[in-house]
Amino acid sequence: MTQAKAALVLEDGRVFRGTAFGAQGQTLGEAVFCTAMTGYQETLTDPSYARQIVVATAPQIGNTGWNDEDDESGKIWVAGYAVRDPSRVSSNWRSTGTLQDQLDRQDVVGIAGIDTRAVVRHLRTRGSMKAGVFSGAALAGDDELLARVNGQPSMLGADLAEEVSTDGLYTIEPVGEHRFTVVAVDLGIKTNTPRMFAERGVRTHVVPSNTSLDDILALNPNGVFLSNGPGDPATQTGAIALTQGVLERGIPLFGICFGNQILGRALGRNTYKMKFGHRGINIPVVEEGTGRISITAQNHGFALEGEKGEQFDTPFGKAEVSHICANDGTVEGVRLIDGRAFSVQYHPEAAAGPHDAAYLFDRFAGLMEGS
Question: How confident is the model at residue 354 (pLDDT cuts 50, 70, 90)?
Answer without folding.
Answer: confident
